[in-house]
Amino acid sequence: MTNRANQILPHHRFAPSLAAPLACIQGTISRVFASPENHHGANHQQFIVTIDKVVKFDGGTQNLVGTEVFLAVRFGDSEGLAHEIPGLQAGQPIEAQGEYIAEASAYPTEDNDNPVLAVLHFTHHPVGYVLYQGQYYS
To answer: Which of 7, 25, 35, 57 is the most buried (most CB within 10 A)?
Structure first.
């Protein structure tokens, strides 16, 4: 992976980690996809966020402000959220933390294609979270 951190970071010790930088971003939802995608046997709620502010970026050096990032938030099993985040809407503010996979290392999916956007991965416990409309999801 071209965006791997050049050091071992604490979140890399978890099995779902891709050893990517840890990013915490605040932004605005620009698009919400209508239905979840089942990817590798797990449901994922998918949406795109335009990054307004980077709260932290451990292991990364890129300036992410103003870029779009694809989020696929796992839900419905013991590894992700218990259920979907209700009421996601374009134009709404959101905060999320997870591993940042740059465009060059992201792979296309049904909804993240043409062009393939950077991905915020592992946005659930024990590494990431989503904060939406005052509700914390992990």
So the answer is: 25
Rounded alpha-carbon distances, angstroms, from residue 107 to 31, 80, 121, 132: 19, 21, 12, 26
Per-residue DSSP letters for 36-67?
Answer: -EEETTEEEEEEEEEEEEEEEEET--S--TT-
* pLDDT value, residue 12: 66
Phi-psi sector, 37: left (phi>0), alpha (psi -120 to 50), beta: beta
Domains in the chain, ordered, with CATH?
A: 17-137 (2.40.50)
Q: Give the distance, in angstroms, between the CA of residue 58 and the centroid of all CA atoms in the same chain.
A: 15
According to the model, what pLDDT value does residue 72 have?
86
CA separation for the pair 99, 138 (Å, rounded): 14
DSSP state string for 88-129: --TT-EEEEEEEEE-TTT----SSS-SSPPEEEE--STTT-E
> Which two three-digit tokens encode residue 66?
């103003």
Rounded distance between C-alpha atoms, residue 23 and residue 31, angstroms = 20
pTM, to two decimals: 0.86
